[in-house]
Amino acid sequence: MSMSGSTGIKVKIGLSNLTALFLLSACSSTNISKVTPSPQPWAIPLPLSEWLQTRDDAKLPSGPFAVSLNDSLAFSEAGSLSFRPSTDGVYYGSERQAKQNVNLPAPSGELRGLAFEGSSKNLFIATADRVYVLPQRDSQIGGQNRSAGQLAELGGGGTGFDDVPAAQADLSGISRLTLSPEGHVLLASSCRVLILATRDDSFFGRRMTAGHVYTLAGNGCGTPVNGAAARETALGYLRDLVSDRRGNLLFSDQNGYWMVPQLAGNYFGQSFQVGRLYQLSAASALQTTAPAPASRLAVSSEGHLILAHSSGLYLYAARNGRLFNLQLEAGTLYPLVVSASANWSASSEARLTFNGTDRLVIRRGNHVFINEVLPDRTLPGVTPSPSPSSSPSSR
User: Fold this and answer.
1) Helices (H) and strands (E) in the chain, counts
2) Which helix (H) or strand (E) holds 186?
3) If 0-12 CB within 10 Å is exposed, 13-18 middle and 19+ buried, where does residue 20 land?
4) pLDDT of residue 32
5) Counting CB atoms within 10 angstroms of each CB, which of 94, 226, 332, 358 has the fewest?
6) Domain for residue 324, yes or no?
7) Are residues 309 and 347 in the same domain?
8) What are phi and psi of 266, to 5 degrees?
9) One domain for residues 173 and 264
10) What was the pLDDT predicted at 285?
11) H/E/C letters for each residue in 368-384?
């Protein structure tokens, strides 16, 4: 069927075929299938290999994790914070050996978000209502000097939402922490997207003071108004939040998938203006499928979106371009059928991110997977017939 958002842009998605596609994929080899009005079955490999197993407990829920630019890992384990450096070196004030899990200082309570800051390796941490930083080296963060390896609270515990010192900000209900390209802390906090400025700067045209919290989207809980100024409309309870390299915000709630542009332009087959809230039409059509969505997100360097929906894993192309060595069409939604070791079920919970070379990293339970590099491919048309391809070797 065709869907038209309030922008008047049509997005094609064959929802009537999704149920059959998922049943087919459950017993198929690893492949990607393109959703079109009348798709023909076809497949190309998207192999995943297991990067590591964090604990010998298959029932461990998927907590937050982060991947640095050099592929070091940080992840939660039963209330603790573990770190796995990719190379020998000094991390957070101590010598660490490559590929050895070590515990790092962590705040008490459930960890809700983790993110490395670019090449600095400063690690930002969120609990349900507080934000912290673990500096890699002595530096000024959030308007104060911080010591390497010393966990420091940045904000939370107050009642304010906009242009308030971080210690006076209400950060309750955090579901995700991520970073802007400039290193500011972005938070999915209940029904708002908040930013904690780590230095004096401008974002979405607003002057920001280091150590202050500002509202970027949402003025409370309710039904979002498509096309409204982002700070002047209600939002549903936020599930996940990411930022692309242009600083555009993308997030999910129970009403669908949304974007607030930092830069005007054409994304996902639609024309967007700065600072307004836009529904991502094709992706939000997944809201009509059963079971109810439980969506996590990851965004590639070029802004292509990966969605971990309760019914499966999807790629949503932001523009004409390439990802996983595949040629993509802007505004098209592609179901990803992953290998059996990381296969989805109706109750699946996953965490997603990309590493520095645009390889997808998935945490499911106590397993962390990474996709292998594909040979160069171009997606065929409506009735493709790609030739068989052998899977690349395991990582």
Assistant:
1) 2, 38
2) strand 185-189
3) exposed
4) 43
5) 94
6) yes
7) yes
8) -100, 120
9) no
10) 81
11) EEEECCCCCCCCCCCCC
Predicted confidence at residue 343, as pLDDT, reads 63
Same-domain check for residues 270 and 199: no
Whether 69 and 212 map to the same domain: the answer is yes
pLDDT tens-digit readout, 194-220 = 999 999 999 988 999 999 999 999 999
Coil, strand or helix at 280 = coil
- The reported pLDDT for the residue numbered 134 is 97
Distance, C-alpha 186 to centroid of its chain: 12
On whether both 52 and 65 belong to a single domain, the answer is: no
211 vs 22, 158, 185, 199, 389, CA distance in Å? 46, 14, 10, 7, 52
Which residues in the chain land under pLDDT 50?
A: 1-43, 291, 380-395
152 plus 270 within the same structural domain: no
Report the domain count for the chain. Answer: 2
Amino acid (1-letter code) at residue 109: G
Predicted pLDDT of residue 333: 86
**Whole-number percent of the chain with pLDDT over 90:** 59
Residue 334's domain spans which residues?
Answer: 1-57+227-352
Alpha helices in the chain (DSSP H): 18-26, 281-284
Instruction: Give the domain-ending residue among 184, 217, 250.
Output: 217
pTM, full prediction: 0.85
Token pair for residue 108? 């008490």
Same domain flag for 127 and 190: yes
- Domain end call among 352, 368, 388: 352
139 and 110 assigned to the same domain? yes
What tens digit of pLDDT does each residue of 33-71 get?
A: 444 333 333 345 567 889 998 876 656 678 899 999 999
